[in-house]
Design goal:
By secondary structure, the chain is an alpha+beta fold. The protein is about 35% helix and about 20% strand. The structure holds adenosine-5'-diphosphate (ADP) and magnesium ion.
């Protein structure tokens, strides 16, 4: 199968709102009046960002979902996407479901797949996504203000626990394990929430590296600090049922891949935030405060600082291995 056959068969789809899509030297896109274009690129490398044997349909969806999440974190409406892909061989049994997953995710979010590049090489995918946002409403990382509430959507830590499951580092209830693996393999970008928060929240980021690491980007960019209340962090039923309490704490504060939104907003906006969340059918939880003292402190219910150890999983993996 030639490169052109591949492009025609798997990568060419009808466009809904694009002047010119796949097939020419460049695509042509027209933003709506008054909007600026938000652009973001992400690369996924086999063995590094995903297991090479991941179900290709799910991987296709996730490849786009993690990019949609960047649009959500800017408060932008995703509109166009390109996919550049290196594949070891033109294997239709892999490519067909992968492209279908990518396309289904695009359609579900009204995004036109307007181009890309196809080459042979070690499996990796590079996506560039473009969206529209009003310049004065974009959710930037540097907008957090003193006294802002800190919010997070959904529940956190599930995806990282899913990764620990796949790595055989933990074993618990099979339904709860499956839920965590699903959160890892089938993330849902909070696009509607991001759009609702545009012009309302002061700053936002999506959680790809973990709550503490990602919130720290907001704090550094804004020149502020934060107090987080551990008891308030939204936890899923699956993690509540999970018996490894130290690891649960670790994934909630430090685990990546949840693709929830973390944002800050004026304390006066609480009602408006709740309304925005309910329009977007996405639960949100207030988890802390922006303060002037630099750095990030996590408090327990008694106001004592929580110290997070980062070595829990490795240690745990050894214990599991010894039992086998
Ligand atoms: P060029 O040689 O000008 O780079 P290509 O032969 O690489 O053109 O691509 C031809 C057309 O197919 C272009 O419009 C390009 O955007 C599109 N295309 C190539 N690979 C992909 C892909 N993976 N997904 C979507 N469109 C693609
Ligand atoms: Mg090319």
């Amino acid at each position: 199968m030639s490169e052109f056959d591949l492009i025609r068969q798997f990568f060419t789809h009808p466009q809904r709102h694009t002047v010119l899509g796949v097939g020419d030297d460049a695509a042509l896109m027209q933003p709506r009046p008054g909007k600026v274009i938000a652009v973001s690129s992400d690369m996924l490398v086999a063995g590094r960002h995903f297991f090479p044997d991941t179900d290709p349909y799910r991987l296709g969806r996730k490849t786009l979902a993690v990019n949609l999440s960047d649009m959500a974190a800017m408060g932008a409406e995703p509109r166009w996407v390109t996919l550049s892909i290196a594949i070891p061989s033109a294997n239709p049994q892999w490519l067909k479901p992968f492209a279908q997953g990518f396309f289904d995710e695009a359609q579900a979010n009204d995004v036109d797949w307007v181009g890309g590049d196809t080459t042979s090489g070690p499996l990796n995918m590079s996506v560039t996504i473009m969206g529209e946002v009003s310049v004065d409403q974009a959710l930037r990382r540097d907008g957090a203000k003193l006294g802002d509430d800190i919010w997070v959507s959904g529940t956190i830590g599930d995806a990282a626990m899913g990764l620990a499951v796949l790595k055989n580092q933990v074993r618990f209830g099979s339904e709860d394990q499956d839920y965590c693996v699903r959160r890892l393999e089938q993330p849902i970008a909070r696009v509607d929430l991001g759009m609702q928060l545009a012009g309302l929240a002061h700053s936002a980021i999506d959680l790809s590296d973990g709550l503490m690491a990602d919130l720290d980007h907001i704090l550094k960019a804004s020149g502020k600090g934060a107090d987080l209340y551990f008891e308030k962090l939204p936890i899923s039923a699956a993690l509540k049922n999970c018996p490894y309490s130290a690891q649960v704490r670790e994934v909630m504060l430090g685990g990546g891949d949840d693709y929830e939104l973390c944002f800050t907003a004026s304390a006066d906006s609480e009602e408006a935030i709740q309304k925005a969340a309910s329009y977007a059918h996405t639960p949100v939880t207030k988890i802390g405060k922006v303060v002037s003292a630099l750095g990030l402190r996590v408090m327990d219910a008694n106001g004592n600082q929580v110290i997070v150890k980062r070595s829990g999983f490795d240690h745990f993996a050894e214990q599991l291995a010894q039992q086998q």
